[in-house]
Amino acid sequence: MRRWLVDVILVGAMVLVGLLVWAGQQRPPDRYLEKIKAAGVLRVGLDPTYPPFETIKDGKVEGYDAELARAIAADLSVRVEFDTLALDTLYDALAAGKVDMLISALPFVYERQADVRYSAPYYQAGQVLLVRAGDKSIGSVADLRGKRVGVELGSAADTQARLLARTAMPDMQLDSSYNSPQEAMATLSKGELDAAITDNTSAQAYLRDHPNSLTLPTPPITDEPYVVAMPVQATGLSASVDATIERLRASGELGRMMGLAGH
Amino acid sequence: MLLRSSTGEFQTRLYAFVILFASLAALLAGFLPRFPVPQPPPTPTPTPIQNPRSEVQNQKIGLHTRLTDEPDPDNIKREFTMLRDMGATWATEFFPWAYIQPSDRNHFDWAHADMVADAAQAAGVTLLVRIDSVPGWARPANSTWKYLDRDHYQDYGDFVFAFVSHFRGRISHYIIWNEPNTSAEWGQRPPDPAGYSDLLKIAYKLAKEADPTCEVLLAGLAPNLEREGSAVALDDLTYLNKLYDAGAAPYFDAVAVHAYGLLSPPDDPSSPRKLNFARAEETYKIMAAWDDTAKPVYITEGGWNDSPHWSYAVTPPQRVEYTLGAYRKAEADWPWCKAVCLWASRFPKPQYTYFDNYSFLTPHFIPKAVYLEVQKYATGQ
Question: pLDDT by residue (tens digit) across B82-119?
Fold first, then answer.
């Protein structure tokens, strides 16, 4: 009798635990997502002064981020509405509920996660190493010893390159005299440098305009992902945005949308 | 009871308990809040600057530090050491009244201010100390910490007296308030030159009482072209004239100037209707008009920004060139200017806005090119 009772209690406990596990996996309803769908509008905040990510042309918001916003809205079956704001007011607008999300070349900020929910990264804006296409002598940063490396004076690439030159690569021949990333890359193309370091956006633009001239032998040497920012409780919305980004990435559309060379 | 059962029953129940335990673990995992847990960026290995503290060629080089929010004593020392290594002998720093006398008139917390002052002194950097920001007990509820009414001018003056007394022998330059010609820095009220002039009189007398040898600086004014009646600000040159009109001249020993270049190079000629680095000359012309040129000028903020994300920014190479040009110009052409403290040395944490592109050092003390180029110039490398 007592054994029978123990078995019943055990089975009952297992069923209860199973139900609780199932309940724990359920997402609470996302009022943000429901509100967007009910209104039929996705309100996106951005600072339209940062081409090629966002700019205003003929009164219309254009750029990489605008395209991504339109794709996200399409997947939600709503239309997109852009709210153009100053960069330093974006997060306030999100907190105040004036916009549903921010898509504005925003870097991932660890400390902000108490207040906002970030999407998966959709763009890598870090610094990249470029060499001439076909040059197999440089396969990593470690191969820069003794090499001539060009950067734009004062740029983030310059900061990184000077750090390398002071620490791991004291014999790297760093030339920080270039007035733009394009100038450094053009000099590299002509064979007057062995490598250049620039931001990825400038590199991709050059590679698009000069196919087969230069190549990126390594992943970015600094990690600067751009992400979409949403309210921290917007779990359903965030899942939808991540699904759109993943769909675009898998199809190769994200690369085309973000102006990556070769797409 | 369970363990005394036959072997088969024992194993069955043991499996059941294992499953139950695993389920409980899954339950706990299921209810844990789900959030991304990327790690904070790693702190890079410190990169010592090898340049010796040689004599600098230009004794006017300085930067504005932003150590108000830096709690780490080692970082405070390191920042001043790196400033000195760059060739800077001056630094502007902000000491909020509200941080040092936060609770009432009778209690002071000097710990952080002492750290900053001692680190600057040890590095051989002369501080230009800006004092403002009102503690809660000295202003009405729902006012900003830049709001100071006349009833509390004496409290501010008493604080200046206490501050100057405390730092006598360690600090010698005091800036009374910051940009009072903007409503934001004047407690969300219209700029009031006569009101600021009265505050200056009280603060000056008490500072001199505490240390007769100290130098009291007129607040740096925000360069702008706003006309009278603007809700935002009053043109800095108009404001300065009004201060002289109000009889403020005997109550400052020197003038602080904010000299931002925005999109113009340092040699862009000055004009009362232009905002550029050389606008400092317009301030000096007004001082001359009031026969007050015996007093020196200190640039306590200024410089260029190279963010691609801000429409008033220049390119990175221009920022380097203009910054060097500004220090050179002050040295060669402005004998009346004793120091050029550009904004800003370093922010303890990234701001993630265009503001980050004003700094000379990253939060992790990695020198930017502008720092290294100024160092080359200053140390004659």
Answer: 999 999 999 999 999 999 999 999 999 999 999 999 99
ipTM, interface predicted TM-score of the complex: 0.83
Q: Left if phi > 0, otherwise alpha if psi is -120 to 50, otherwise beta: which for B115?
A: alpha
pTM here is: 0.85
> Which chain B residue lies closest to A25 (C-alpha atoms)?
B30
B46-70 pLDDT, tens per residue?
A: 333 333 444 678 999 999 999 999 9
Three-state DSSP class for residue A69: helix
Determine the residue type at A94: L
Tokens of B305: 């920004």
**Whether B44 and A159 lie within 8 Å, measured CB to CB:** no
Q: Nearest residue of A to residue B373 by CA position? A: A154
Distance set, CA A92 to CA A86, A225, B220 (Å) = 10, 21, 29
Q: Which two tokens stand for residue A35?
A: 């509100």
Distance CA B136, CA B146 (A): 10
Residue B30: C-alpha distances to residues A17, A20, A27, B129 (Å): 11, 9, 11, 54
Report cis status (omega within 30 of 0) of the bond before A52.
yes
Q: How big is the A-B interface in CB pairs under 8 Å?
A: 104
Q: Find residue B366's DSSP bridge partners.
A: none
CB atoms closer than 10 angstroms to residue A109: 17
Give the three-class secondary structure for A53: coil
Separation of first and last alpha carbons in chain A: 72
